[in-house]
Every structure is written in C-alpha cells, then in structure tokens.
User: What shape does this take?
Amino acid sequence: QDTTSSSSACSSVRFCSGSGAGYKALCVLTGQVDAYFLSQPSTYQWDTCGVQAILHSMGGCMLSYRAAVQATKQQQPMASAADCSNLHVQYSASGIPGESSPRKWCNAGGLLAVRDLSVAHKLLAVCCCMK
Assistant: This one.
C-alpha cells in the first residue's frame, strides 16, 4: 500500500507498507526503498540482526526509532554514523530486563533502517512534525 503524505512540509515523502520485517529490511539493502521504519515493538532481534550487520558494512545503520526521534527533538547532532552510535538497535545476551520470552527479545524502541543517514534526517523531520 502506498500513501503519499498530505502535509505540505512532508509532501516529498511517500509512505509504503508491506508484510514482514525481514522483507522490508531487505528492500532497504537492495535500494528498493530508502528507509524502513517501525515505531512499535513488534519485531524481534532475530528479525533484524543480520540486516543490521550488512547495513553497517555498507555505511548504513539501523537505529532505535524511539531514540532517534528523541535525539531529533532535542536537536542532537546526527551527522555521521559515529554521532549515532548510541542510537543503534542494541543486542544483549540477556534481552530486555524484566520481560519474559519472547517479548524480552523484541526491538522495544522500534527501528529505522537506512543506507544513507541523510534519509534518516529527512524521515525523522517528517515523523517529528506529524501529530
């Protein structure tokens, strides 16, 4: 499903939806889409770890959506991958403390996968202006 944003500030962004976290993340890797973002904790570490490693090797990144939105609202610098190192989706051998399986292995902050950080900046600006 393809949805073009109606806000004038967001008019150059086109939102699409599709099934499967792995498929959508692979679409970023292959260049079929510029970004994949998910604001809900509905993916799991096994859905994203491989793609995150490949994106990183290509100069892209997979960020925690919640952390990236917060950083954008606070106008924290995100000019380089180094600036974003604390925003990456994190993996831990013990999962999320206090959660039971399988929820302890979810990507609790959502995610934002991009091959190019400038795309993340544009998308975050749009997401932060939407109410």
